[in-house]
Recover the amino acids of this structure.
């Protein structure tokens, strides 16, 4: 049988190609085969655009099912594929696509997703399991993604709105283990709890991460709930945080409040920015605790030992005054892989004038912060 014209599936009037074709009616399963030079009319497959033309190798006469080979492009804003994927699939009556393909890689929110096997239908590409690898700047840890669904205009993991786990992330680098007298020492991280021994480099680690897929400024990214574990000298904290990861793998989040201790003094920070560089706030309050005066009895005992004639003066003095605090505003506080910096490394911060008793006034005082 020889023929020519438009060949289409009757159901949904689904066009396949235009041109000459042949068919062998004597075969047990007769098929129509397109001749050379036909025009293939498919413009998409499973809703995904094509790179080049889809080729119809044959169409089963009895079932109407067409065998097709094509290269699909399923990249989207925020999702980058290394290569366009060549697939072989079946098109059943009505344009229903069924096919499978292997081995492809994509990048989602700056993280590499490696797929061994995927299926394509007329609605989506589905993946049961995939390997997720974090980039070097986040620690290069790995995890497993389940039920990845890629649609022409969206992506879900585990189902729409379902949270899925992410591996631990190290935005300022992993801590460096040091050895003292042959004993390796480094922080040991447990689920939800920061423990460990020193010495070690300062670090920030994000654990117990769960994420959902979202669209931010028109591009696909992740929204993550996490526990931020902060490791600084004399400052170990576990902080619940929520942040976004954009298409480049960059963080955007905020911590409402964080209190630290610096050289024995209280540092209060509010609305701290979380990014791939660590933590940063434009202004913070450093409260310096003045040393308490001695009580009447302690003062009297000391002075009497030195000068017994001061007994009358001491009797006129009351008990010691309550402790006093001096609060100052410091600029540009940063916590990163190098530790804590106030105003930048080596930058001088200035204190307001204050008096001590009735005889001494301190003016033009300055300080720098060093965390070892």
């Amino acid at each position: 049988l020889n023929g020519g014209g438009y060949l289409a599936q009757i159901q949904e009037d689904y066009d396949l190609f235009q041109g000459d074709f042949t068919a062998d009616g004597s075969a047990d399963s007769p098929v129509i085969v397109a001749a050379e030079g036909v025009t293939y009319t498919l413009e998409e497959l499973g809703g995904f655009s094509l790179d080049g033309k889809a080729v119809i190798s044959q169409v089963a006469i009895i079932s109407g099912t067409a065998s097709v080979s094509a290269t699909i492009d399923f990249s989207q804003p925020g999702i980058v594929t290394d290569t366009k994927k060549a697939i072989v699939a079946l098109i059943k009556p009505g344009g229903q696509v069924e096919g499978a393909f292997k081995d492809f890689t994509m990048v989602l929110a700056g993280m590499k997703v490696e797929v061994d096997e995927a299926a394509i239908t007329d609605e989506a590409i589905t993946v049961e399991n995939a390997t997720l690898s974090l980039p070097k700047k986040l620690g290069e840890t790995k995890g497993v993604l389940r039920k990845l669904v890629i649609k022409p205009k969206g992506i879900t993991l585990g189902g729409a709105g379902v949270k899925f786990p992410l591996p631990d992330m190290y935005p300022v680098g992993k801590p460096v283990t040091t050895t003292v007298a042959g004993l390796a020492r480094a922080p040991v991280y447990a689920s939800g709890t920061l423990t460990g021994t020193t010495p070690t480099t300062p670090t920030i680690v994000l654990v117990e991460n769960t994420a959902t897929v979202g669209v931010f400024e028109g591009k696909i990214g992740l929204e993550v709930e996490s526990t931020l574990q902060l490791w600084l000298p004399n400052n170990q904290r576990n902080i619940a945080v929520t942040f976004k990861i954009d298409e480049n793998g960059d963080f955007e989040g905020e911590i409402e409040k964080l209190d630290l201790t610096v050289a024995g003094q209280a540092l209060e920070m509010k609305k701290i920015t979380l990014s791939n560089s660590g933590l940063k706030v434009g202004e913070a309050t450093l409260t310096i605790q003045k040393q308490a005066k001695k009580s009447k009895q302690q003062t009297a005992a000391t002075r009497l030992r030195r000068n017994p004639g001061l007994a009358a003066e001491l009797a006129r003095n009351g008990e010691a005054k309550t402790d006093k605090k001096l609060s100052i505003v410091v600029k540009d506080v940063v916590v990163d892989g190098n530790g804590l910096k106030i105003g930048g490394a080596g930058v001088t911060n200035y204190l307001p004038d204050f008096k001590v008793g009735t005889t001494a006034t301190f003016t033009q005082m300055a300080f720098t912060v060093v965390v070892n």
